[in-house]
Amino acid sequence: MKLDSNRPDFAVQARRPNLESLQHLRVSSWVKLLELPNPLSFDEALLLCPVSKDKWLAWIPDHGEAILNVKQFSYWV
């Protein structure tokens, strides 16, 4: 059986952000959540503003606002 990686439901391992990419985090950037706050929420979040060096206030569709640690999402430059 051959795996079709072009299928939208094909699972891939999330990449961890490195220190260089964290410096490029910006307000209004969408990030991929590594863990969902609840089973019905989306798997992406919109960064609203930094709270500290490693935490961001974010909006998650079907969940609301949340404070996310940079270890809880992945970000690609």
Question: What's this entry about, in short?
Answer:
The chain has one domain: SH3 type barrels. It is 5% helix and 35% strand. The protein has a 5-stranded antiparallel sheet with strand order 4-3-2-1-5, with no helix packed on it.
Descriptive terms for the model:
77 residues, 35% strand, globular, mainly beta, SH3 type barrels
Task: Compile the SSE list and pairings.
Elements: H1 19-22, E1 30-33, E2 44-52, E3 55-60, E4 64-69, E5 73-74
Antiparallel strand pairs: 1-2, 1-5, 2-3, 3-4
Could you walk me through the main structural features you see in this protein, from its secondary elements to its overall organization?
With 77 residues, this protein is mainly beta. The protein has one domain: SH3 type barrels (Roll). Helix content is 5%, strand content 35%. It is built from one helix and five strands, in the order αβββββ. The protein has one helix at 19-22, and strands at 30-33, 44-52, 55-60, 64-69, 73-74. A five-stranded antiparallel sheet has the order 4-3-2-1-5, with no helix packed on it. It is globular and about 30 Å long. The protein starts with 18 loop residues before the first helix and ends with a strand.
